[in-house]
Amino acid sequence: MTPFAIAGVQMHVSGLAENVTAMRHQIDVLMGIYPWVQMVLFSELAPFGPLPENAQSLPSATEESFQEAASRHGIWLIPGSMFERVGHEIYNTASVINPAGEVVGRYRKMFPFYPYEHGISPGLEFLVFDVPEVGRFGLSICYDAWFPETTRTLTAMGVEVLLRPVLTGTIERDVELAIARATAAMFQCYVFDINGLGAGGNGRSCVIDPAGTVLYQAAAESAMIPIEIDLDQVRRQREVGLRGLGQPLKSFRDRKVDFSVYRPESFESAYLRGLGPLAMPARGSRAGLRTADQTPASQDGSSPAPEPPPVAAYRKWVDVRQRRRRKLR
User: Fold this and answer.
1) Are residues 245 and 127 in the same domain?
2) Does residue 275 share a domain with residue 170?
3) N or C: which end of the chain has fewer CB within 10 A?
4) Is 288 domain-assigned?
5) Does a structural domain hold residue 289?
6) Together in a domain, 308 and 184
7) Domain span at 313
8) What is the pLDDT of residues 221-280, one digit of tens each?
9) Does 273 lie in the same domain as 201?
10) Among residues of the chain, what percentage have pLDDT more than 70?
11) Are residues 80 and 220 in the same domain?
12) Which of helix, strand or coil describes residue 250?
């Protein structure tokens, strides 16, 4: 058994005032009640809320205050994320602080929630760190998890625990919870999906084990979620399969298929290009709906409508590939 105790903190986040003082207080209370906790994780943008106007350069006095708290309690600390200003760019950045109070890395969110998170630049590098004699951890921020390539890369790098600070206050939180559970099962890792309250989200933080079992799910109220995990479960599941069944990491490793969709130089992406720009929906928009001359054939036997250009182009590309394959045979 390789035990390790992690606590997620789901707390109210103000969008108009700093939350750093409240976060430090939460850490003090948490460690007073649960002194056995070894790592603490807060939600996305917890220190200052979701306004980019609060962006600051890193390192900063705010980050140093969290370093002091981590050192004083002897814990690993991920204080959610903050907007980081680098020249004219703004990133959504999470710092990882070790028990000595040292920043061991910073992760910049790769997939800002466009078009709603307008003006935020995407990060380009993954962050993986090791807790000595315990295991390997990785960071993913909120919308990143909607792109399984991010978790696939992290787990291929050996990540066993996925730390995911979240800020979701919108109506698709139930979908995110399904994604979190599927992520844990597909990649056989622990997932700590920690949301905020108020300007920081609508709660329902959850912790999921490598078999896809929900160990705990909070309600929409303040919560401290201390859970001791066993990283040997990750290693066992990855070796013998989820509940003795599927071994998806090994199956992906041993695959024969080449996913050409990831090679734009050889993949015909007419369909994707035809989806239109990544933009805020307009009031009354009929984007994506069939026009009058694209309605399906009526029951009187009239001719079916022509396919939308992206679909037609994709079918043509498929036909060409099939003809080429027949010639090769």
Assistant:
1) yes
2) no
3) C
4) no
5) no
6) no
7) 260-283+302-328
8) 999 999 999 999 999 999 999 999 999 999 999 999 999 998 888 888 889 988 989 999
9) no
10) 88
11) yes
12) helix
Q: What secondary structure does DSSP assign to 209-240, as a single string?
A: -TTS-EEEE--SS-EEEEEEEEHHHHHHHHHH
Query: Using one digit for the tens of pLDDT, what is the confidence trace for 147-191?
Result: 999 999 999 999 999 999 999 999 999 999 999 999 999 999 999
Which tokens belong to 105?
A: 């890395």
Same domain flag for 227 and 312: no
Give the pLDDT confidence score for residue 305 in this predicted structure.
Answer: 47
Q: Which residue matches tokens 């929630």?
A: 113
Together in a domain, 165 and 265? no
Asked if 9 and 194 count as a contact pair (C-beta separation under 8 A), the reply is yes
Q: Calculate the average pLDDT of the chain.
A: 92
What's the number of domains the chain is made of? 2
Instruction: Give the span between the Cα atoms of 92 and 144, in whole angstroms.
Output: 12
Least confident of 38-52, 275-289, 298-312: 298-312
Strand partners, 138: 128, 162
Q: Does residue 295 lie within any of the structural domains?
A: no
| Strand pairing category for 103-108 and 89-97 | antiparallel
User: What is the DSSP-derived secondary structure letter of residue 245?
Assistant: S
**Contact (CB, 8 A) for 297 and 304:** yes
Task: Record the pTM.
Answer: 0.88
**What is the pairing mode between strands 190-194 and 206-208?**
antiparallel
| AA identity, residue 3 | P
Residues whose CB is less than 8 angstroms from the CB of residue 305 and which lie 6 or more positions away in sequence, other chains included: 290, 293, 294, 295, 296, 297
